[in-house]
UniProtKB/TrEMBL annotation:
ABC transporter domain span: 21-252
UniProt keywords, alphabetically: Amino-acid transport, ATP-binding, Nucleotide-binding, Transport
GO molecular function: ATP binding; ATP hydrolysis activity; branched-chain amino acid transmembrane transporter activity
Disordered: annotated span: 260-292
Protein name listed in UniProt: Amino acid/amide ABC transporter ATP-binding protein 2 (HAAT family)
InterPro entries: AAA+_ATPase, ABC_transporter-like_ATP-bd, ABC_transporter-like_CS, BCAA_Transport_ATP-bd_LivF, P-loop_NTPase
């Protein structure tokens, strides 16, 4: 499988079948006459974890906002499960199965964790008990600390609450805008692990990230955007090995990438061992229910 920029190879490595979410030739922008996205494409297949990386100002966050109806799409199409949802309102999209976690201001600081999660379900409040239990299965901490005000939490914990709130409506696809932004390396790593955990619980995920290498390590596939257009794409680990991507976007030497890869493989081993141990104890985090 090679990384590529054109034709069907643009989605190289994607599973067969219809994408759950698809952007076709999106043109979008904020100011009249200025396009930030210039014919951008993206596919997310059921169960995939798809990354969007690229330099500052490439249009990564704008892509998420265009998918979620927060930036007007001037031409092109967004499809959810084959249905046209281009320029639908965000609340409609939430009802139809898309969750979105913005980079900033993503919790209500004066509300408790539980109240924040209630806000995520304001369109369907009767499902609170069932959905809260499902979320606590993925993030047990939130159950233990449900009465704590979100404003008293650390940046990493607030990010977890924001993700959990978006999951309350049981979305088919979750859009995450730079979940590691502003976090220390350790907390950033937890945000990536959390992202993978959400994905393994069955939710398709699109993640925009500045931390390109770490993003490529956890993604099934990724798209590299540059100046609002698709530059490269392919399976995450293939992109990590692509000398052009390394030179232009990862800003590092291949040896560093290999070292990073070895690091994540070690972490994966630890994660698997940890899961196996917990599964053996009949823990809720056993594979198949939701994954750690
Ligand atoms: N609300 C806005 N109004 C006008 N221009 C905007 C707005 N938001 C973003 N832009 C511009 O759109 C371009 C793309 O921004 P965007 O945030 O999508 O980039 P990005 O790839 O996510 O970069 P970064 O990683 O730096 O956030 C930038 O030139 C930015 O200045």
């Amino acid at each position: 499988m090679t990384t590529s920029t054109s034709g069907s190879a643009l989605h190289a490595g994607a599973p067969p079948g219809r994408p759950i979410l698809e952007a076709r030739e999106l043109v979008a922008g904020y100011l009249p006459g200025v396009n930030i996205l210039n014919s951008c494409n993206l596919e997310v297949h059921p169960g995939e974890l798809v990354g969007i990386i690229g330099p500052n100002g490439a249009g990564k966050s704008t892509m998420l906002k265009a998918l979620f109806g927060l930036v007007k799409v001037r031409s092109g199409t967004v499809l959810l499960d084959g249905e046209d949802i281009t320029n639908e309102r965000a609340d409609t999209l939430v009802r139809r199965g898309i969750g979105y976690v913005p980079q900033n201001n993503n919790v209500f600081p004066s509300l408790t964790i539980e109240e924040n999660l209630q806000m995520g379900l304001y369109q369907d409040p009767r499902r609170f008990i069932e959905r809260f239990a499902a979320i606590v299965d993925i993030f047990p901490t939130l159950g233990d600390r449900r009465r704590q005000r979100a404003g008293s939490l650390s940046g990493g914990e607030r990010q977890m609450v924001a993700m959990a709130r978006a999951l309350m409506m049981d979305p088919k696809v979750l859009l995450l805008d730079e979940p590691s932004a502003g976090l220390s390396p350790v907390r950033a790593d937890e945000a990536f692990i959390r992202t993978r955990k959400i994905n393994r619980s069955g939710v398709s995920v699109v993640i925009v990230e500045q931390n390109a290498r770490r993003c490529l390590q956890i993604c099934d596939r990724a798209y590299v955007l540059d100046q609002g257009a698709n530059a490269y794409s392919g399976p995450g680990r293939k992109l990590m090995d692509d000398p052009k991507v390394i030179e232009l976007y990862l800003g590092t030497l291949a040896a560093d990438v290999e070292q990073a890869q070895r690091g994540v493989e070690e972490a994966d081993k630890g994660e698997r061992a940890d899961k196996g141990e917990r599964a053996g104890k009949g823990d809720d985090d056993a594979p198949g229910a939701h994954v750690g």
